[in-house]
Specification:
heterodimer, A: about 110 residues, mainly alpha, Quinohemoprotein amine dehydrogenase, 4 helices, elongated, B: about 325 residues, mainly beta, Methylamine Dehydrogenase, Chain H, six-stranded antiparallel sheet, five-stranded antiparallel sheet, 27 strands, globular
């Protein structure tokens, strides 16, 4: 019996839990794969996070240069605007992140 | 004088009954956001801006080298006239009630259709319906799906081979799709992820390399370069010796003995010895795209951020930095 790691605390979460009663596992956590997994369920970009000797973390330098690439394809959707669904015109508002970021207006 | 320079060649071409062609030489196409910018390889200056709607992702070149098809926002396909440097038609692969996103795009040899890897969704009575992922052939003028084959989740890139008779679909595995029958069929599956290969195959430089797609990947200990020969369909897998260089993309030098890779550093690769030759940091920062002049003397890195840097291939000294109109996804070369 695996240890339960998440508890439903509010009504919505409890309702979701009831919906899942009796379900068998249908997906494995990405971290359980033997390859480093990245920011997406589409495939892997985990190699970007490889450490290297000259920088503290092997991500893009500067991170702004990777912003549009991630927005447009919905990488890191929790951290960046989701360019495929909710922010499809992001490139119009901010075609150059380093120059135009002040134009961004989010609720 | 300037009008004469522009008008006379066009009039001459019209008199000959032929569509005007782009001037001879290398042209680089910077794939930006809301714009494709054209750089003249002789002067390394921006010579045209081509407005396009959306975030540009994939491109493919028509067989007559007169049109560049440019996909954006993962659902629009713009047809760019390379002599006029303007969009002459746009199709949308969304339709028949489905909201589609397209990862991977290659032209079919008929010049009227193309292949894309699609994920799709629609709403029905307030419920989200998610379609099965497919590789589909669609009409370039309307975006309408002609035929399709279901594929596993995760297909992110397509490479056409053997005059369009084969489509390679790159996902967590590599699927070989036979296009010759009435239906598209997956005829072979080769493991990628299960072989410990981790791949981000968005950049392949097939037409820039003269018909060879070049894509890098990583194992836990090394970087490899996968080469797909479009003519034969042969796939060559080169595992490079030494600590891996970090790279988004790899382009072949014209002699195909060397290659150039870029991410935070520009790295030269000896393909015959399967080793790294040398590397320099890109001062402007991370770049997604790399390209090389048709004479091999200059290397270009661009995309990610809004800069394009030109390097002397011999000294690896930067020759020029262009500030582009927007951030970018890639830099492609067409030699006319």
């Amino acid at each position: 019996m695996k240890k339960k790691r998440i508890d439903a605390l509010n009504e919505k979460a409890k309702a979701i839990q009831r919906l899942a009663d009796g379900e068998q596992p249908s997906a494995a956590a990405l971290a359980e794969r033997r390859m480093p997994q990245g920011c997406t369920t589409i495939f892997d970009t985990g190699w970007e996070t490889n450490p290297r000797p000259t920088y503290p973390v092997g991500n893009c330098q500067a991170s702004a240069r990777d912003f549009h690439g991630c927005v447009g394809d919905c990488w890191w959707p929790a951290q960046m605007p989701d360019g495929l669904t909710n922010h499809r015109e992001f490139d119009v508002q901010c075609p150059n992140v380093a120059r135009d970021w002040r134009n961004l207006k989010y609720d | 004088m300037r009008w004469a320079t522009v008008l006379l060649p066009a009039l001459a071409a019209a008199a000959l009954g032929a569509a005007p062609r782009a001037d001879a030489g290398d042209r680089y196409y910077y794939l930006g956001y809301g714009v494709v910018q054209v750089i003249d390889g002789a002067t390394d200056t921006i010579v045209a801006d081509i407005p396009v709607k959306g975030a540009v992702r994939n491109v493919d070149l028509s067989a007559d080298r007169k049109y560049l098809y440019v996909t954006s926002n993962r659902h629009l396909v713009h047809k760019v006239d390379l002599a006029q440097n303007r969009v002459v038609a746009t199709a949308d692969v969304k339709g028949d009630g489905w909201d589609r996103v397209m990862y991977g795009f290659v032209l079919a040899p008929d010049g009227k259709t193309a292949y894309g890897a699609f994920m799709s969704r629609r709403a029905e009575n307030g419920e989200a319906i998610v379609g099965r992922p497919v590789v589909a052939q669609f009409a370039l003028d309307t975006g309408r799906i002609v035929r399709s084959v279901e594929v596993p989740w995760g297909v992110a890139h397509l490479v056409g081979a053997r005059e369009g008779r084969t489509i390679y679909a790159f996902g967590q595995d590599l699927y070989t799709i036979d296009t010759t029958g009435p239906d598209l069929r997956i005829v072979a599956t080769q493991p990628i992820l299960d072989k410990g290969m981790n791949m981000l195959p968005f950049w392949d430089y097939t037409f820039d390399n003269g018909g060879v797609a070049s894509m890098n990947y990583y194992t836990a200990t090394a970087m490899g370069v996968m080469l797909v020969d479009q003519k034969t369909g042969a796939i060559e897998d080169l595992v490079l010796k030494g600590d891996p260089a970090m790279a988004y993309s790899v382009v072949l030098a014209p002699d195909r003995k060397r290659a150039w890779a870029v991410m935070d550093d520009l790295t030269e690769i000896d393909l015959a010895r399967k080793t790294y030759v040398r590397s320099v940091p890109v001062a402007e920062g991370t770049c997604y795209g790399v390209n090389v002049s048709s004479d091999g003397r200059k290397v270009y890195v661009a995309g990610g951020g809004s800069t394009l840097t030109v390097y002397d291939a011999k000294t690896l000294k930067p020759l020029k930095v262009l500030q582009m109109a927007s951030d970018g996804m890639d830099l492609r070369r067409i030699s006319f």
